[in-house]
Amino acid sequence: MTRVSFTVNGSAVEAEVEPRLHLADFLREELSLTGTHIGCEHGICGACTLLIDGEPARSCIAFAADCGGRDVRTIEGLDADPLAEALREAFSAEHALQCGYCTPGMLVTARDIVLRLPDADDDRIRLELAGNLCRCTGYVGIVRAVRRVLDNRPAIAVPERAALPAGRAPAAAAAPKPEPNHAAPSAAGPSPNLLRQAIRIGLSSEAVWRAVQDPALVAGCVPGARLLSMENGRIKGEMLAALGPIRTRFVGEATLSYDAASRSGRIVGEGRDGSSGTRLSAEATFRVAPDGAEASLIELGVTYALRGPLAQFGRGPVVQVFAREIAESVGRNLEARLRGEAAPVAERLGTGRLALSAAFHWLGSLGARILGILTGRGRSR
User: Which domain holds residue 60?
Assistant: First the structure.
């Protein structure tokens, strides 16, 4: 048993829990907060969505034991929230629910959309709702309801995002803000997420620049990635990832170009997971810069957009945390190969040691897919 203390809907909770007990089961069985519904139990359907530290999260794949010191808010905890109240009224007015089973999670996601994307159009609303499945409504009324609240947002006392507990920094705090020169993956697609990373290599920038022009070499340093073909600046690759019983295989293509004068490059790619139908488009830039006499930095910048059932795993702030871990792994592997040493054993994505929850395992693999594109292994949150 593990002793855990955290806050649920503003009240302190302390309990002894089994390490494998999911947060959704704890809330329902121990606290009688049955507004959190359980559907697929794989983090796909979105029925169990709630807020952890102010961010939407899947409670069916988050462990109660990992919530120590966190702030958890369920649909019951949003009773007095003015934005949630406006959404409830809009859902009723626009006939955005039928059986109601998906509605609690749908409301939590809708609230996040209004807070995070005040200028979202209908296409972006649909994209953001892709991770919340509904078998009844056809989503038309749900989109109209979110649209209604977005259009009336100035008249609503919109709350600020919940403050993180003392001592806990936001996940994206350490990442510099991306520069605005990264174009969206597709002009007709949804607004992209932004990601920047830097990989430090203990070798000269000349040696690293030569290395990054070899897509096969770099692909071999990305866990789960495999280069399938390369011809005339166009590469095809795949990325394998796992989340418990869920297995994915993203396959895609990308174009790759280099600028020797600035020691930089650009990759534009798209890919698809055949089992879920989820698509990812991305545009990435990279630059090799000296970092002292015998060290260098690979500076990476990427815009990406996920479309489909797995889009909920593409939340930028969380992806940044795991993208940093994977960037470090790629850096270690690349440096070892360039030195002629044995590279550390790379685990298949989704089966690593990241400890917060199975959901975060998946987010780690998403970050790797993105980094895989921009480092040149093809297409593959």
Answer: 1-168
